[in-house]
Amino acid sequence: MNLPTLLVLAIVVVCFVAALVFICKNGGFGGECSGDCSSCAARCEAARQNKEDGKH
């Protein structure tokens, strides 16, 4: 392998690792959906209430 090939390979690996770190820090691959829609709705409503309480 020559230098340009190694540079491209290194850039691809760095981008892949950065994407994995970003995904893991932001909720993972599954999006934390357990199939219980009422639970998700309650969590969204609580977040909305906290946001509104901060404005007043």
List keywords for this structure.
elongated; mainly alpha; 56 residues
Task: Give a short synopsis of this structure.
With 56 residues, the protein is mainly α. The protein has helices at residues 3-25, 37-55. The relative contact order is 0.07.
- Amount of beta strand: under 5%
H/I helix tally: 2
Distance between the termini: 62 Å
The biggest sheet, with number of strands, parallel, antiparallel or mixed sense and barrel status, is:
none
Q: What's the alpha carbon Rg, rounded to whole Å?
A: 20 Å
Return the average pLDDT rounded to an integer.
82
| Oligomeric nature of the chains | single chain
Number of strands: 0
Helix content: over 70%
Uncertain spans: none
* Element-level helix/strand string: HH
Which shape, going by the Cα principal axes? elongated
Structure classification? mainly alpha
